[in-house]
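User: Show me sequence and structure for the first protein, then do the same for the second.

Assistant: Starting with the first protein.
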Amino acid sequence: RSFSQSLLRLLGFIFWGIATVQLYGGVSVILVFKNYSYLFQESYLSLPGWLALATALILLPTGVLTVSISVKCSCKQQGTLMYLLLLLLCLEMSSAALACSYYARITSQLGSAMGYLVHQHKWLCSQDPGNSAVDIIQRKLQCCGVHNYTDWIKASSCCHPAGVPESCYKEKHSHCRGGLDHVEQFSDEGCLKKLEDHLCFAMLYVFGCSIVPSILELLAAISNGILMR
């Protein structure tokens, strides 16, 4: 019993730290899908982030309750803690499963979505230069084209002859124009790989923040069960 009480006290403080980590992960996922909403039409893709935020909010009172039980046992508090731990496990398993399935779905659609943006940019003659969705992505991620700058050459049209947008240039060459005379001034990587890496980090972060706390919550449930006997 004394070991269970000590473990619960320690886990209570750990839960507060995990709540902060969960909060960061949830906000990151939500902001990623908000910033690149023109690539993803489905609004539900940010659901793992919202589940992570809900988990973080529930972890805070759970941590308080866990520390309180380790000091003074109460049947009502112990029962409430069990319900909260069960709720947290459900939320975290759902968040982990959604993060995996959504990431697989997103990566399969990302290439065609980027290709469409490049094609649209080259064929819309009335488009304001530098203000399209693909220009915003290229400036933000310091990338050029879907795979590299040659994607812009293949997509040349009567409205936009062979060349690259100004957003393709590296920051120190941002004053340059979209000719093909100085290829070394273009951003080296394509946007597809950088977007995939960005999304992979956000989803893996949420996945890790769901699996690791669930193990600690099982330990807390076992310790609480020992004290309830």
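Switching to the second protein now.
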Amino acid sequence: EYEGDRNGEGQRHGFGKARLPNGDTYEGEYEHGLRSGHGTYRFKNGALYTGNYLQNKKHGKGVFFYPDGSKYAGDWVHDQRQGHGEYLYANGDTYTGEWANNKRHGQGTYVYKETGSKYVGCWVNGIQNGPAELIHLNHRFKGRFLNGKPLGRGKFIFDIGCEQHGEYIQPVQEKEEEDEDERPLPLEPIWKVSEITKLTPWSPHDEE
């Protein structure tokens, strides 16, 4: 069903309201029969998008409310979260930063609601990767991350005015003879302290 403006060829063009066969509805602008311009799309499952479209795809600025209560507000390119945006997760965590292909990618800040801790740094395809800072209530860690875990040189900075330098080392997996089929879980990196100092300017970018 469609009610709204049409052009000379009878295509939806201008402002209109449509109910789609699957039960979704759209109210907004059309160009030559396609959703283009600003509009609001309501999904039958309770999700809602309000923002810009280009040729039926979310493109430009827009806000998407997901059925689980989470929400994304930011840039879209061809139906994908891409550019800069803020995501509020269902558990109350937030991510603000760069996106590519629907994933956290580039520089961004992730805040953990439960602990108040936040990760400020690089992301690759949705995973913490590269130089970053992990900020807790009374201390923070500065270093590099690989596949979501700290690895290599870094330092803990304490609010009382001292630093603990060291590195995260990936422990070697002990091989067991019996169960070769089962892949062991990757071990957590181990923190090895090298020295305690007063505050220093070292940052993970120094090694690049």
